[in-house]
Amino acid sequence: MPETLQQAVTGLDSRRAVLLVAVLAVAAALAVPATVAADTKTNTTENETTETPEFDQQLVSVAPPEKATLGIDAPGEDPFQIEIDMGDQFHLEATVVDHDDDVRILLATGDVRAEDPDEYLSAENAGLENVAVHANELERDRPPGGLHDLRISVGNETLDHAVLEVKPIVVFDRIDEFEPDESQTIAGQADLDDGERIQVRVRSTGNGAFLLSEEAVVEDERFEATFDASNVQPGADFEVTARHDNQTVGSTTGTVVDSTAGESDDDDRTQESHGVVLVYEGDLLELEAAPDQRIAGEADLEEGESVSVRVRGESDGISFLVTNQTTVDEHGTFEVTVDLDEISPGTEFTVHVRADDDPDVQGSAPGVVVESTDGASDGGDGETDTQIDDGESDDGTLSIPGDALGGIGALVAGAGIAVLGIGLILGIGRRQ
């Protein structure tokens, strides 16, 4: 083949190859948008099919007897089920049909005990069919306080969850004072029938762990619970809860008040007696910073009746409470020991004594912790150890060493025993 013709054929083949590549490139470019469009259409279709009804709020709160409004975003026209589940007490299910995109289910919480669900269940922008009450064991017209389940489903598939909060039916009075003492009262209002019972619990939420529990009976929509908080640490924070029908129906908080605050003024620190007299020398009851410190006194009680003794104060910025219990002997006297080895010398305290069976019989006295002598006393330093007779003395009186009194003249002069009573000082037994 002549060289010129061969070059022409070769050039033609090259142009055909270039043309083929160009055609393929154009085809590929046209195919990409088509593929993207197809994918977009598929995703759009998938998005449309995955849109399902759902609650517009995950927590719905209501205070009976108000109506609870359950808002539902419901795209499309397919029916779905709404379920209200309060356990064994109440359980309802209904089918929502002919609905708009914005559906509202209304639950009248003041009438849920009615036999006909139409009296407490309704819908806006939709119809309700196949209303089934699986359980309605409510004892009152309102649902129990607490958190209850809400569900949306289609067939056996649950599509969304939410929570219905029925606000408490118990409202506590403000707790301004809750002291570490007996007969501390917590009260409040209860939207319950007369005779209904509420369990009131006081539980610490910080230092000084404690748990108190008492039952209160509702009367005229009021209740009151009284606690013995004598062993509770002052300054402790606590939470109060009310339970009814195994449900928490109310709560509040408080702080234990230090009832000894402000008693450090010497002018106010004097002994008080209402049937109980504490025996000690001087203006203050002095106890050593050591174990087995003795507290003695007399009580206007019968033999065998018990008294509780509490020593309360503040040491190094920390409140303390030491308690013990004993019984009155045949002479009407009592004696207990307390351990104060962890208390710093110089700490002021107050001793409270109260009859266990008669709170009106009580007494108190101020005191101070002094340096420990490790029990070493030779009896010759002029210090008097006031003692309570063990019942073996003939006259049945308080046994006090003679130099503690120094005669009646010394008593009149003001030196000697604090608050004994003339009968005791003269050696006359208070009980025969």
UniProtKB/TrEMBL annotation:
Gene3D superfamilies: Immunoglobulins
Membrane-spanning ranges: 404-428
Family annotation (InterPro entries): Ig-like_fold
tRNA-binding keyword on record: no
Keyword Zinc-finger included in the entry's annotation: no
Region (Disordered): 249-272, 355-398
Keywords, alphabetical: Membrane, Transmembrane, Transmembrane helix
Acidic residues bias locations: 380-395
Annotated Low complexity bias: 249-260
Protein's name according to its UniProt entry: Cell surface glycoprotein
